[in-house]
Amino acid sequence: QVQLQESGPGLVKPSQTLSLTCTVSGGSITTDYYYWSWIRQPPGKGLEWMGAIGISGLTYYSPSLKSRTSISRDTSKNQFTLQLSSVTPEDTAVYYCARGDPNLGFDYWGQGTQVTVSS
């Protein structure tokens, strides 16, 4: 059973960089032939896919967020990380990590973590 767990600060100030980590257990980000994604859901809105990292470390991003988003990984810890720069209150959302990508779908999700952008 693959499990994913998000971690990171719940409050970020405007203009700062949001950083979240997803820890994967029961699977491997370097040998499982899947993409590993970050997805968010602002209050009252639908899910928004942000980007993904693949088995080789290759990344791809949503065009609308590409200029502010970076996804990296720590293979020794089986973790992948999201960084979103220059945040505004519009980036307030529940952030999820998941296994999969928009083309093939997502089969395992973390429980989600609330991030609020506020001064």
Per-chain topology:
Elements: E1 3-7, E2 11-12, E3 18-25, E4 36-41, E5 48-53, E6 59-61, E7 69-74, E8 79-84, E9 93-101, E10 105-109, E11 113-117
Parallel strand pairs: 2-11
Antiparallel strand pairs: 1-3, 3-8, 4-5, 4-9, 5-6, 7-8, 9-10, 9-11
Uncertain stretches of 5 or more adjacent residues: none
Classify the beta-strand content into a percent band.
over 45%
- Please state the structural category: mainly beta
The coarse overall form would be: globular
Q: Estimate percent helicity.
A: under 10%
Specify Rg, calculated over alpha carbons. 13 Å
Tally of helical segments: 0
Main beta sheet strand tally, sense and closure? 7 strands, mixed
Average of per-residue pLDDT values: 96
Q: Span from first to last CA?
A: 39 Å
SSE succession: EEEEEEEEEEE
Number of distinct beta strands:
11
